[in-house]
Amino acid sequence: MSTRAVYQFGTDNPTHVYIHHDGYPAGVARKLALWDRQSPESFLQANVWSRFPDGTPRWMHIIEDDLAECLREAEYRYLIADGVITCWAGRWDDPWTWQWALPIDDAITRDWDREGPPDEEGYPTTWEPGDPLPPPRGLSVEDVAAEARAMLERSKAGAARAY
After folding, report:
1. Does the global pTM surpass 0.85?
2. How far apart are alpha carbons 88 and 109 in whole angstroms?
3. Residues 6+ apart with CB under 8 A from 149
């Protein structure tokens, strides 16, 4: 079964992308590593592995009028803005629960199989389908970036103590 995800690029007049496969954090890290960080369209094009006969990407698209349907199908939702990726998890009609936020470069280089997501110390928030997607606890994107960096440092410190 595929792990579906919706990617939101930006917060002002955002663009949403739906990809039907590899939406779990390690899969997203691989997608981010292929992306030139220029646009949602270039993210989509960097991650096209197959196409329909008319040339359109298979199992992925820019969301235009079916956001609610795509969110209902997705297991993860990501906000990509100002160099930070934020992750929420959910399914069907359940509220979305904040999971983690990291600078994009850290999300790409993280060993997801060994380290897993950053610890959830703090403050998960929820998001209901149809609501605008806020950063956790109503923080600004800059606050989320700062908190992501602080969480990463705490996570690294905890990992160093474990060895």
Report:
1. no
2. 20
3. 103, 106
